[in-house]
Design a protein that fits this description.
Rhodanese-like_dom, 5 helices, five-stranded mixed sheet, 29% helix, 5 strands, Oxidized Rhodanese, domain 1, 122 residues, alpha/beta
């Protein structure tokens, strides 16, 4: 089970693998790295919203939904979670260790770059 850091729940690798394997829609897992990083390697089925785009879409995100953020090392995703928490989101989590710690399946290419936040409800 994860732990808490700066008020944000930190999800560890094995827990994330279980969430992905379970094909659950809650939490919604979002990669917040840059386009090039995502294209090089990402967790299959996980959509991309680069960190810099989060302020542009924050009003479209559901504050009651649970979100789990992923980045390269866990730093940017932690900042995104803290930012959303400051905007009134109560259910935000960070993948601790990021893609550097990920040893599960990866995919390359631009599988799912979010253009409209309503896509996340699929």
């Amino acid at each position: 089970m994860g732990f808490e850091q700066d008020g944000i729940i930190q999800v560890e690798k094995e827990e994330l693998k279980e969430l992905i394997k379970g094909d659950r829609k809650d939490p919604i897992i979002i990669d917040v790295r840059e386009l090039e990083e995502y294209e090089e390697a990402h967790i299959p089925g996980v959509p991309l919203i680069p960190m810099g785009n989060i302020p542009n879409v924050v009003k479209q995100l559901d504050k009651e939904q649970s979100y789990l953020f992923v980045c390269r090392s866990g730093g940017r995703s932690q900042n995104v979670a803290m930012y959303l928490q400051s905007q009134g989101f109560k259910h935000v989590q960070n993948y601790f260790g990021g893609m550097l710690a990920w040893d599960g399946e990866v995919q390359s290419g631009l599988e799912w770059v979010v253009k409209d936040v309503s896509e996340l409800k699929k």
